Amino acid sequence: MKSFNSYIGRPMERVEDLRMVRGRGTYVADVNRPNQLYAVILRSSVAHGIIRSIDSSEALALPGVRRVLTAKDLGSKVPVIPLRLQPLPQLEPFHQPVLADEKVRYVGEPVALVIADSAAIAEDALERIVLDIEPLPAVANRSQAEAKRAVLFEEHGSNVAITWSAFRGNADEAFKTADYVRRETFKVQRHAAMFMEPRGFVAEWDEAAGKLTVWGAAKTAWHNRRTLAAQLGLALEAVDLIEVDVGGGFGSRGEFYPEDYLIPAAARIVGRPVKWTEDRREHIMSANHARDVECDVEFAVSRDGRFIGLRGQIWADIGAYIRTNGSVGPRNVAQFMSGPYCIEHIDLKSSMLTTNKTPCGTYRGPGRYETDFIRERMIDLAAQDLKIDRVELRRRNLVADAQMPYPLASITPYDSSTELDSGDYHAVFDRCLKEFGWDERTRLRGQLIDGYYHGLAIGSFIEGGAAGPKEEARLVLETDGALSVYIGSSSVGQGLETIMAQIAADAMEMSYDKITIRHGSTSYVKDGYGAYHSRSTVMGGSAILLAADKLKDLIRKTAGARLGCKAEQVVIDGEQASFGGEHLAFAGLSGVPLEVEAEFFNKKYTWAYGTQAAHVAVDPGTGHVKVIDFISVEDVGRMINPLTLHGQAIGSIVQGLGGAFLEHLVYDDEGQLLTGSFADYLMPTASDFPNIRSITVELKPCPNNPLGAKGAGEGGLIPVGGVMANAVADALSHLNVQPMELPLSPPRLWQLVEQAETARSAD
Q: Is there a contact between 274 and 267 (Cβ–Cβ < 8 Å)?
C-alpha cells in the first residue's frame, strides 16, 4: 500500500516563495488593461470643515483629463461604507460616504476623483481644483472630544458613538470585599499596519456583457463584492473581484474603503478601464489606523494572590467614521482583558470616541495587544505591592485544564459570549520559563552592566481565531488525475497555497505535487468569507476535509459503475480505486472532471495560548532599550506546517516590538498628521531585534473543528507591549520607573528616568 497521508505536520517550504523571489509575482501595480485610464484622489487638507464649493473647471480644461467626479456626480444619495462586523443600527449615522458630502472630517478624506490619460496628468489636475472649505474646530484627542470642542455628527449630539459593556459576575460586590485594589491609567498609541505594497485597483466594465471585473481585492472579497454590487445596482453575478499577490495585509488591507467603490464606479461611468495606485503618503493618512486607547482600570486581588476582579473605563479614539470593522478593537479591549487568567468578576466599559483623525479598523491582534499591555502591567504592579513573586502570581491564577471550557466576559450591545476551548496553560508557562532560563537569569535583574540596566519579564496570552460562520471549498478531480482545490479563503501572505495543499493531499491521499490551490476570484466558489481573525486554516482547511469526503464518495460511485460493484465496496488506495483485484487510477477514471462542493460551519472560536519572556538592557542616559533575548511558547492545537507557522510567529513578534518601541501616528491639536512618511514614522528593521525565539507545541487540539487546529497568526504580537514595559520597569526598579504608556521610545524613557531621579533627590 502506498500512502501519501503524511503532509500535515511537515515543515514544507512555501510554494508561493519561488515565484516571489524570481520576481514573478503579480501585484495590482502589474495589472494593466487595454485603453486604460488612471485615477487620483483629491483629499482634504482640512481636518474638520464645511465644503462650500468645488470648482474643477480648470482641471477639466487640462489636456488628457477625462472626468472629475465629486459627491454630486454620484446621485442623490452618496454611497457609504457599511459595517462588515457588529452592524448595529445605532452606528449607521457614523458610516463614511465614499466622497465627502457637505462636510470633511479628517485630513485625507476623499473629496474628488480625477480620471486622466496618465497618473501624472491626473496629479497635475489636482492642483487646478479649487476647493473651498470653511474650517470648523478640530477634535483631535479625548479631552477635546469629551468637552465637545466640536461635535462631528451634530444630529447625534455627542462624540461618543457607542459604549460597549463587558461583564461577568458581580464586580461591585467583589471590589467591596477585596483585600487589595489598585487603580491606574494606561495609554496605547495610535499606530497601524504598514504593509510593503500600498493598495490599488484596476476596474473594467464590459458594457456588452454587463460585467464588472475588479483586480486588487484582498481579505474579504465576497463581502466586498456583495457591497459593491448593491451600491452599483448590479446583480451579484455581474461583479467579479479578483485577488492578486499582496505585500501583506495584517487586518487593514482588503476591507471596504472609499476607493473600493470609486474606482469601479469610475470605470463604469467613463466606459474604460481605470487604474488607481496608492502612494505611501496616501496609505499613512487614509488606510485604517488602529490602537489609540486610554484606560482607567482597577484591579482587585486577594491577600493570598488570587485575582478577583477588573473594572474600569476604556476610551478608544476611532477617528472620524466607523468603517467596516471599526468596533472590533474597542470591543476586544473590554471583553478579553482577563486573558488566560481566572478573573470571576468583570465590569469594563469601552467608549468609542469620534475625532478628526483617520478612521480606525483592525490591525493584527486588534484590541488584544492593547488589553494585554494593561493587564500584564497591572499584574506586575500587584505583585510588587503584595510582595508576591510575579511568576508565582501568574501561575497561581492561570486557567487550569480542568476548568475548560472556561467562559470569558460577555459583551453588549452586540451580544456576544465565548469561552476558552481547551489548553494546559501551566505546562506552556513552565516550558517558557525553562527554555528562557528564568532561574539562572534572575541574578541579572536590575544589574548595571556596561552602562545598561538589565531586566526580565514574563507574560501569558490567549489568541482567538477561526471566526465563522462558514467557509467553502470546491474540489475538482481532473481527468488527468490532478486535483484542483477552489477555496473561499484569501491569501494575504500567510502561505495559504502551501497549507491548503498539505491538507488536501492528506485528505485525498494524493501526492502533494498533484494539488493545485485556486483562490482569488469570487467566481471560484458560491460564497466565501476570506482571511481575518486567524481563520483561514481552520475554516478553509476544514471545508477541504468535508469536500474530500464527498469527493471520495463520488469516486467510489464512479469506480463502482465501471467495476460492476457497489460504491461502498470500492477501496481508495492512494491515487486509485480498487475492487476484487482490479484497479482504476484517478487519471482516466472519468471522461469528465469529478466535482464536489462543501461548506464548513462553525461559530465557536479557537483559542491558542502561550507565554513569552524577555531580557532587556536599558541605557538610562539615552532611553535606548536593547532586547537581549525574547522567547515565545505557544500551543496551537495542531500544526499544519511548522515552518510557515514559525515565520508567522517571528513576524508577529517583530510587529509587536515595533508597536512597543517605535511606531506612532502623531497628530497636532488641529487634526494635522505629523508623521506622514517613513522619515517620521519609525519601523523596525531586521537588525533592531535579532534575538527572537519561537517554540510551537501541540498539547491540546481544538475540539471544535476536524483538524484540531487553532488560529495562530496573531499570537506572537499580543503580549509584547506588556512584556516589554514590565521588562523595562524591572531593569529600572531601583528608580521605581513604571511605564504606563506606549511606545517606550527613547525620549519617553529618558523623561521617566529624569522624573524618577528628581523625585528620589527630593526625598
A: yes
